Amino acid sequence: MNRIARFAFLLFSLVVAVGISYYVYLLLNRQPAAVVDEAAGVKTTTISVAAQDIPRGHKLLPEDVRTVAFLAESLPQGTFPQDHLPVGRVAIKSIQATEPILENKLAPEEVDRGGLAVIIAPQKRAISVKVDQVIGVAGFIQPGQMVDVLVSIESQNEKAGYITKTVLQNVLILATGTQDQESADDKKAKKINVVTLEVTPEESENLALAVSKGRIVLALRGYTDMDDVLTKGATVPELLRRYRTDKEVVTVAALPNAPKPQRAPVYTKKKFVFEVMNGNKVNSVTLEGR
Fold first, then answer.
1. What confidence tens digit (pLDDT) does each residue in 230-242 have?
2. How far is residue 192 from each of residues 49, 126, 145, 182, 220, measured CA to CA in Å?
3. Alpha-carbon span 77 to 67, nearest angstrom
4. Three-class DSSP labels, the chain
5. Of 22, 95, 221, 262, whose CB has the highest number of CB atoms within 10 Å?
6. How far apart are alpha carbons 45 and 82 in whole angstroms?
7. Domain ranges of the chain
8. Burial class (CB in 10 A: 0-12, 13-18, 19+), 259
9. Rounded CA separation 21/16 (Å)
10. Number of Cβ within a 10 Å radius of residue 175
11. CA-based angle 64:122:99, to the nearest 5?
12. Class of domain 44-119
């Protein structure tokens, strides 16, 4: 009987300990958002931050958001408190891990779908073009960067041949990726790099024409370079005239196995010796021939 009483008392104590621990846990979770650190005298508040890197167009999930204490004096505008988490909102700007989630980085609440359409600016359009590694600046083009679009196309002037011209400037890169395309030779699918640009409706028409009639090249711009530059384009004759002198300089290189030039033969004059007998005397006469 004593053993049963001791076991019941131990079980009762365990239940009471669990209940007290749970009650304390509830009290800690129900504390107000704004607390005061009495030791340091600093007022903090709990806000929502990104638990991981959040790309543009992503719809926030519960695992994307966590809460941390933030200084109330330096609290930025548009933060989300502990009792109002931004779960379900769509990011229109990239948010790095541990960065506060602000209202101006999220789409309106009525937008409940993520994707590329959320981040397109008003009066703009998104158009995708196929590029290779060289055209895509060897893979260094990333979303959020600005590029110029150049097109190499056959010129209307027969003397010029082909011309390369900048047709679009300061174009925003919305997204980069790959897609499968079947090869005409071996009927096998291969990866094609695709770049999505944000352009106006008029620029989208120009870009579509450039893609169908010529070959496009993307030129990466610096973040601080926002000025438009007017160019006349580059043609084949102008390209070949570059770094060319006005005077024609002709040099003839000797062939490695070429025969050496022969000298003209030197002719020597022949001499003829005659003996002339005059009586009992014999005289020798020498004559030179031609």
1. 888 888 888 887 7
2. 36, 18, 20, 10, 20
3. 16
4. CHHHHHHHHHHHHHHHHHHHHHHHHHHHHCCCCEEEECCCCEEEEEEEEECCCECCCCECCHHHEEEEEEECCCCCCCCCECCCCCCCCEECCCECCCCECCHHHECCCCCCCCCHHHCCCCCCEEEEEEECCCCCHHHCCCCCCEEEEEEEEECCCCCCCEEEEEEEEEEEEEEEEEEEEECCCCCCEEEEEEEEEEECHHHHHHHHHHHHHCEEEEEECCCCCCCCCCCCCEEHHHHHHCCCCCCCCCCCCCCCCCCCCCCCCCCCCCEEEEEEEECCEEEEEEEECC
5. 95
6. 9
7. 44-119, 125-241
8. exposed
9. 9
10. 19
11. 25
12. alpha beta
The two three-digit tokens of residue 13, written as one number: 């104590």
Beta pairing partners, 274: 285
Is the sign of the CA dihedral 175, 176, 181, 183 positive or negative? positive
What would the pLDDT profile of 10-58 be if each residue is shown by its tens digit? 777 888 787 888 777 776 665 554 454 545 567 888 999 999 999 888 8
Q: Are 276 and 283 spatial neighbours (Cβ–Cβ below 8 Å)?
A: yes
Distance spanning both ends of the chain, measured CA to CA: 159
% residues pLDDT > 70 (the chain): 72
- Structure tokens, 204: 């989208």
Which pTM does this prediction carry?
Answer: 0.56
Q: How many CB atoms lie within 10 A of CB 135?
A: 18
CA 192 centroid distance within chain? 15
- The upper half-sphere exposure of residue 93, i.e. CA atoms within 13 Å in the direction of its Cβ, equals 11
